[in-house]
Amino acid sequence: MDNGNLSSIRLLDALRTAVGDGQLKVYYQPRVDIRTGDVVGAEALLRWSHPTLGSISPAAFIPIAEETGLILPIGEWTLRQACAQAAAWRTAGFDRLVVSVNLSPRQFAQGDVVDTVWSILRETELPPQQLELEITESITMDVESAIATLNRLKRLGVRISVDDFGTGYSSLSYLKRFPLHTLKIDKTFIRECTKDENDATIVRTIIAMAHNLNLRVVAEGVETKEQLVFLQRHLCDEAQGFLFQRPVPPEELVEQLEELPAI
Ligand code: C2E
Ligand code: CA
Ligand code: CA
Ligand code: CA
Prior knowledge:
Layout: H1 3-18, E1 24-33, E2 39-50, E3 54-56, H2 58-68, H3 71-91, E4 98-102, H4 105-109, H5 113-124, E5 131-135, H6 143-156, E6 159-165, H7 171-175, E7 182-185, H8 187-191, H9 197-212, E8 216-220, H10 225-233, E9 238-240, H11 250-255
Parallel strand pairs: 2-4, 4-5, 5-6, 6-7, 7-8, 8-9
Antiparallel strand pairs: 1-2, 1-9, 2-3
This protein binds ligand C2E and calcium ion (3 copies).
Domain EAL: 8-261
Organism: Paenibacillus antri
Protein name: EAL domain-containing protein
């Protein structure tokens, strides 16, 4: 067995105990309205802090959780946390913040995903329009059943967004058929959009296409003022990235809501 396998088995072992042990936390990164500068939402992002291994990146443990099915309990826990947090913010007066939660392909393919979402919304008393589910293009393995599930989720009143847009396959064919609310432009296109003419064209084209399809567009990974100005000029709707704030614990998000750089 090579080291890669060994370490992923260790990681899997550790991950199994992480949820029950309170090692997982949900952090939040604001989504900012590009025209007004208001924080209009926040993306829930998992953080794992292991007692001896230290902090482990979701890029390392989400794929293992996905492969092994552990993503199902972890994902449900995350969704419940995020909805409860959004409901608490609502009670505190932030009643228009939309919380977005990443839904993995495996979770999406679960027969009872719609029931799970519905019961968590009822349990936490969060109005469905304050929840957005981020899916990726990899749910399109079985297009017809994906459309059926998305339609049922839409009927609950939650919003659906496509994450990492532009990085997968078959992006365009299903855009028309999926009941989507938002496209999130992948950060790999944003990174060079002020320097690389091809990336600039891609970003502009995605924004224009999304608007023609009546979708909202979010740019992720916005790190510089120049990128923000570019996105403003091309009428992107929302931005998310280190320029505004890194993902932070929920207490910090609210403390800093007023202090984010003005647009
Ligand atoms: P993602 O959904 O595309 O999330 C955005 C990632 O970009 C986050 O990485 C975030 O911290 C990072 N990011 C935000 N702003 C910037 C920026 O300005 N520059 C750069 N370079 N990066 C930025 P993170 O938190 O490490 O998460 C990585 C991935 O792990 C996520 O990518 C998502 O695919 C997955 N993930 C995280 N939490 C969850 C979860 O609760 N459920 C599922 N299924 N996946 C999750
Ligand atoms: Ca995401
Ligand atoms: Ca993304
Ligand atoms: Ca991603």
